[in-house]
Amino acid sequence: MPHPHLNNWQRDLSRKESLILVALFILLFMYYEYLLFSRLSAERYLGQGLYYLQEGRSTSKEMLLKKSLFYQNALKSFKRSLKLNPYNADPYYEYGQIITEIADDSELSNSLDIGIKKDENRGLYNLAKPYYEEAILKEPANAIYHQRLGSIYDKLSETQEAEREFRKAVLLDPQNVTIHLYLSQYFLSKNKQSDFLYHLDKVVQLYKASLGGGGPLETLQSMVCDFLKRINREDLVR
Question: Out of 91, 137, 205, 225, which could bridge 81 as a Cys pair, Cβ 3.0 to 4.6 Å?
């Protein structure tokens, strides 16, 4: 016959194990709720940032204070988004994009206080670079991320690194007319004629192919036609 004290001890142990399991379940549930809330909040801030960025882009330079405010709010929103969900590539990419846009616009960069000395565009490009790199770590197969990082290397006069990223972008998405359009302009500016002609030919091929499938997007059509007009080669798409 079992000792009564042993039975009591076993019942107490069983009760404690049940309480521990309940506590663990509650903690796991609370953690899941926290992760879900963080992810939803991150998506909300990302959407908010994209809204502010679009408003900033569409605001004329004559309203520089208003334009700057939109960009400042977009920066804050993207930063909150990536802090709440550091595993999502999008806010890193968008943060890099907005810093690049600010660096490209001297009036805008002078009107914003983001921890970089005025007129120090190289510092701004260096600030944007790790955000593109982080986006690539999270989505290494995204061709546009590689192309954007390559453009930053180009602005920093790091030609080998820029062209390495451009090659990756083309390998990842060889049918992307936007990437070929960018590279045709890039190699034209570098006086690399054979590379320029190769990507120009790809632009024309892909553009013509898109005409048979319902036509290219209006923005893309405008970009391609404007570029061909600048280099006096509109005949290529007639």
Answer: 91
